[in-house]
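Input:
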Amino acid sequence: MKTYLSKQNRVLLAELVRTDFKLRYQGSILGYAWSLLKPLLLFIILYVVFVYFLKIGSDVPHFPVYLLLGIVLWNFFVEMTSQSLGSIVGRGDLIRKIRIPRWIIVFSSSLSALINLGINLIVVFVFAIVNGVDFSFTALFLTLNIAEIYFFSLGVSLFLAAAYVKFRDISYIWEVVLQAGFYATPIIYPLALVTNIFIQKLLLLNPLAHAIQDARFNLVTHETLNIHALMGDSLLTIVPVLITIFVLIGGLFYFKSQSRTFAENI
Amino acid sequence: MATDIAIKIDHVTKTFKLPHEKQSTLKGALINFRKRGYEKQQVLTNLNFNVYKGEFLGILGRNGSGKSTLLKTISGIYFPDSGDIIINGKLTPFIELGVGFNPELSGRDNVYLNGALLGFSRKEIDAIYKEIVEFAEIERFMDQKLKNYSSGMQVRLAFSIAIRANTDILVLDEVLAVGDEAFQRKCYDYFNELKSKGKTVILVTHDMNAVQSFCTRAVVLNEGKIIYDGDTTSAASVYRSLNLKGSENSIEKKNKTRINNASRSKGITYITTLGSDGEEKTLFGAREPIVITCDVEISDPTLDYSLYLKFNNPGGVTISAIDVDLGKEVLSKIGKKRVYKIKWRLPGIYNDGSFLISAFLTDAIAGNVYAKQEESHEFGIQGWNTPNILIHPNDSYSVEQKV
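Output:
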């Protein structure tokens, strides 16, 4: 562990994240403001469509905040995985010419996404206050939910980044998977809208759905249908966490096994 | 490991898998899953040597001999298939200058980024930032984007950061190949500084002068194997002979196609060059005598023939020519068979270059050309290393007291 976080690695990691941020909104007039505007604009669209036209979520208290939190968390997953996917190939110039730990590249992408999430969460909190959300102590558990999403995303990212070196199809496949995932996760619709109980339970086994619903429960309203509300104390409730651990370890091992030949295969 | 060893290269073998057709799509991989054809190319074969502390080691070899692969394996960019590389100290590779430079970032940001790749923290860069910029002579441009720099400015900046690297072992790949003379001089100064500081350096280059003036030892690689390990003078000559062999092969190949292409003229059947041992040879060293031979077949023994032999440089200038008297009286004394071999002996005085032989068989009296072979055989001379001189006559001179 000491060598993983040696001074040199920490310096490099910080510099890569910094570069990432400097380059992200390169040439755009609003610059970093886009980090906030992007989720806000998406939120407005979804809010208008689902709340005004389709009248969904009227029975969920603070539905706008509930919706925004879901979108922000889901976007965190999308951003982290999509950026990590091309990160190894994109940094091919480094990998072929200098000896740096390969994982640092994916890790730096994940950190940029995490920082972006932090900025977005500020917007969520402001919204929550404006909307009159009654914060309870459970808001502290939000960090655990974010940790679950982060580690799940990191596992997926490591796998994608390593696989993309060999198979460039992955980027297209991943776009489709993300699109499917967006609908398979209760983000824009309340889970209660799914009438089949079995499918409700199945959807909640997805670590992302599990974490997002829990985050809503912890921050926005205790009326959120989370895994405990649905399955009680059944052993099934730890399945999403097990999946997260499995994905993370699997991703790490796959990345490690492939990383030796990155320089040759890029 | 003995403490005086900086790098131990222990029976290292490296193979690349080269797919016949690179599969970078899933479909391709699925279709060719079973019959995926790839070639295994062994780039390094069982390399085994040590680099000692304070040594300035040159690695020589022709293109494709495995130099860069060896360097990247030592640098930890590639991993060996078998064997081990043990490094004793902090190693910094310079496979290229300015690794990680981003054209969209300012010169200043690039200094910090490149510095981080070399292991400098922001604080450490802050301390030497002024020095770096001054050395690169681009103070005015530091806040401009790198893409607006000239290539010379980029190299200067990169070099200026690179030489601050505080490390025990440096791995340099052809850094000298870029930049103008002033830059090369800076490089040489840097090498001298490294030497005086007793750093361990591995240098890959084709520049024999650099090897002979800086390196304390040199390794010659050929087809992934070490064929020489020792002092630089012998290494340089081993390397040169490798290059000679290479150009010999290419000349012979060209000669073969020439023979195939030339409409085989009836009178002149074969032209070649021989070494002093009488064996066919196309590449000669400095001072090495050359024998040009030409086989001639006479159709009418009652005529007086003459053979005109010459060789040109590739620019078409005739370097030397000779008229061979093949009159009927001369030939009748030699033999009854109508085939003759003419040997033209040349001293080893011609300068480096490639030369093309032509031959014309004519009627000695009327001057009609019966047969000709124009530029049908090539031979080369290498080893003088004296450009701008045409010939080296074996002139002797003396210096005496003036009376």
